[in-house]
Structures are given as C-alpha cells and as structure tokens.
Amino acid sequence: MDDDLTLDPDFPARFDRGQRSRCQLYLVSPPRITEDFAEILAEALDAGPVAAFQLRLKGLDEHAIARMAEPLQLACSERDVAFIVNDSISLAKRLGADGVHLGQGDGDPREARTILGPAAQVGVTCHDSRHLAMEAGEAGADYVAFGAFFPTTTKEVLHRAEPSILGWWSTLFELPCVAIGGITPDNGRILVEAGADFLAVCGAVWTHPDGPGAGVRAFAPLLDRS
Ligand SMILES: Cc1ncc(COP(=O)(O)OP(=O)(O)O)c(N)n1
Ligand SMILES: Cc1nc(C(=O)O)sc1CCOP(=O)(O)O
Ligand SMILES: [Mg+2]
C-alpha cells in the first residue's frame, strides 16, 4: 500500500477529521450480500485505505444480520477499519461494533451514546438540512452525513443535497462531515473539494467491473485535496 495514503494514525479511535488535506473512504455494504462477502470485503479493504465499513443489510431481522456480521467484523478489525452498524443501536451493542449510523427515524444519538459508551462512533443522517446537522452535533454525533448528492440505484432517496452544504459545514464546525449518494470516482472530486471529510460509497465499489479492489483504487486520486 502506498505510504502517502495511510490513514490518520489514531483511526479508528474516532471519526477524526484527521488532516484536512485528505478525505477518507467509508464503504457501505450492499443491501443484500452473498455468503462469500467476507472475501469480497477483504479484497476491497486490502486495495487501499478505507476508514470505515458500514454493515447496511435490508430486509433481514437482527438475528440474521448478526449471523452474517461476524466474519465481516473480523475482516475490519484485522485491518483497523471501523465497523459501523446501520439502523440499530441494539444490534451495534450486541455485536460490539465500533459504532452505529442512525437515520432520522433510527433513534437518538444521546441514547446511542448511553447504550454504546463514550468510545462508540455515532453517525447521523442529515439529508440536505443544516438544521438537522446542528441538532445532531449538539446531540453528540461523531459525524453528520449529507446526501444524496447524485442519483443512486442503491436506494430510493427523498432528499438531494448540494456540495455547498459541505463547505458551509466544514467552515463552521470541527465535527467531520460525510457525503453519500451516487458517488463515483468520476463525480466525487467536487465533494472532496467542497469539504467532505469522508465519501460514503456503495455501488461504485461493489459493482466496479474489475472488482471491489479496483473500485477502491479508483477513488485514491480523488482523496488528496492538497
Ligand atoms: C454514511 C451514511 N449516511 C447516510 C445513510 C442513510 O441512513 P438512513 O437515512 O437511516 O437510511 P438507510 O441507510 O437506513 O436506508 C447511511 N446509511 N450512511
Ligand atoms: C444508503 C444511502 N443513504 C443515502 C442518503 O442520501 O442518505 S444515499 C444511500 C445510497 C448509497 O449508495 P451508493 O453509493 O450506491 O449511491
Ligand atoms: Mg436507517
């Protein structure tokens, strides 16, 4: 791995903004995965610096997700990649995950903090709303997520965000911001330049025609904004 692409040395202790000259990659799982997904994940994580992986499985109950999680969590911990659980504070607790990502209907960041403890990383969906982002920051979130910036086939989105919200946020606040939604190596640069601390990516990595490793590598040139 290229030394120039190493992560903040404190990672994954916190969703640190790290050096402001760099943006980091935050992988989001496909909504459905196959039994061999741990190998696919390992290929992606070994291809370049990935700060965090979010387990975002839809249409399954928590027991089923918990059964699938173990090898994925191991792949992350072996590589110092933060393992974040989507949607469920209780599942994050059960798995001993590094953190949880909460949508607006998924629970309160304060409750997540109480249940998961001070070291847990709590992210909050803020759509295109400055108000929601400030609320999340006040509630103790470790990052705020804005999106969707581009059309996506991974989920139906009701909100579209403009890159300027990233510039507004990162100028005023120290708390890291994540950009999500339809991000590819071809369109992501504008978000990095606008101030995104993390690019959260699903489809562009897992459906890359040359495999997920190539998907991760394709983002490397975008992440340095110095
Ligand atoms: C990093 C990141 N940002 C936003 C989301 C979306 O979360 P949510 O609004 O809860 O929607 P679902 O993911 O549950 O469909 C996310 N998962 N990750
Ligand atoms: C999970 C999710 N949340 C979004 C939001 O706008 O809150 S967009 C999105 C899908 C991200 O997948 P892809 O990189 O394939 O577009
Ligand atoms: Mg959710």
List keywords for this structure.
226 residues, alpha/beta, TIM Barrel, eight-stranded parallel beta barrel, globular, disordered N terminus, binds the ligand Cc1ncc(COP(=O)(O)OP(=O)(O)O)c(N)n1, binds the ligand Cc1nc(C(=O)O)sc1CCOP(=O)(O)O, binds magnesium ion, TMP_synthase, metal-binding, thiamine-phosphate diphosphorylase activity, ThiamineP_synth_sf
Give a verbal description of the structure:
- The chain is of the alpha/beta class and 226 residues long.
- The protein has one domain: TIM Barrel.
- It contains nine helices and eight strands.
- The chain has an eight-stranded parallel β-barrel with strand order 1-2-3-4-5-6-7-8, surrounded by five helices.
- Strand 2, helix 2 and strand 3 form a beta-alpha-beta unit.
- Helix 1 packs parallel to helix 2, helix 1 packs parallel to helix 9 and helix 3 runs parallel beside helix 4.
- The protein is globular.
- The protein starts with 23 loop residues before the first strand and ends in a 7-residue tail after the last helix.
- The relative contact order is 0.17.
- Bound molecules: ligand LCLJCK34, the ligand Cc1nc(C(=O)O)sc1CCOP(=O)(O)O and magnesium ion.
- Ligand LCLJCK34 binds at residues 28, 54, 56, 86-87, 101, 103, 106, 123, 125, 145, 147, 155, 178, 180, 200.
- 4-amino-2-methyl-5-(diphosphooxymethyl)pyrimidine binds at residues 54-58, 86, 125, 155.
- Condenses 4-methyl-5-(beta-hydroxyethyl)thiazole monophosphate (THZ-P) and 2-methyl-4-amino-5-hydroxymethyl pyrimidine pyrophosphate (HMP-PP) to form thiamine monophosphate (TMP).
- Mg(2+) binds at residues 87, 106.
- Residues 25-205 form the Thiamine phosphate synthase/TenI domain.
